[in-house]
Design brief:
alpha+beta; about 40% helix; Cell/Rod_MreC_2; MreC_beta-barrel_core; 4 domains; 6-stranded antiparallel β-barrel; Cell shape-determining protein MreC; about 375 residues; Cell/Rod_1; 6 helices; Thrombin, subunit H
Amino acid sequence: MQHSPPPLFKQGASARVKVVFFAVFALALLVVDSRLNSLVLVRQVVNTVLHPLQMLVLMPRDASKQLAEYFASTVHLQQELKELKTQQILQAQTVQRSQTLANENAQLRRLLELKERTPGKSVLAEILYDARDEYARKIILNKGMQQGVALGQPVIDDRGVIGQVTRVFPLTSEVTLLTDKNQAIPVQVERSGMRSVINGRGRSAYLDMRVTSNADIKLGDILVTSGLDGIYPPGLQVAKVAQVESKATTTFEVVLCTPVAGIEQHKQLLILLVETDHIAPPESEEERTKKEKINRRVTRDSVKENEKSNAKEAVPLQENGTSPATSLPITKENVAETVPSGENAGATAQPADRATNAGATQTVKTAKAPKVEANPRPASSVKEDKK
């Protein structure tokens, strides 16, 4: 059964004819355009008319592409920034290391010059680490007995005194710094020559020195080693006077000084290999603590014994004027061991009068009965001599 429109509504050619016609027409245009290039103008006009539509269609694609490029460039820039920062840190470390090496080289040159100027033997040492005790001012060096280091030898840098060797091992040694509370060095004022002893103050950055109130010392004076101890060579700089504390109640002044040497600045030091055989080894903390306990115990016992002896010797007087220890009447003859004759009689009679007038509250310190002359003079004659 055919479903074609009635003849009344038929208009033009059929669809099949149209398809064939347009296909042939397209092929003809292709052949003519390829052979004669006669459709260039038509193509340009069509392209110009359709360009806005093409841009509108391509906008989503371009937007997505730009967004992807933005994120890609951001990630790339972040990565590049991270690499640049890493390079900057490495370069900064290199610069700092170079500066540190330059400072160490300068310090070593100064120490070598000091070693040449210093009489006697010496050895360069490097600080390995600080002591584990936070309350002690000590450091560990990389030189020991095998390099000739011995107990008591001084340690210096290019500025002045650092400390003293207090413990020695075969390959290392322990140095007590100048600021340690148990460290003391004989010094003298470089300007006036006044001698004294300077002591450390533990964790404080200052050094302590005590002088008389009339001592010739001023702010800014340089203190050098006096050499009287036989350890430190004379003339090594130790400290600089920073403050003078004077008190009206005492005859001494407390002088606060700052160390001249770089106590916590340098890593290379110089050990002076002086002879220390004549020096007694330093006491350990345990021995020092034991001695302090023994001294305190002895002092406490002696005080108690003195109090007991004083309590036994102090005997109260009875109301009748006699002493229970002697059962003798308190008279001028009994209080004085002997009553001198002549001019000295009046001088010895005065204490007896004071003892008699004190009454029952007066005590007489006596361990045995006082000596009495064979023929004591009467009290009346003593009063007459006093008059």
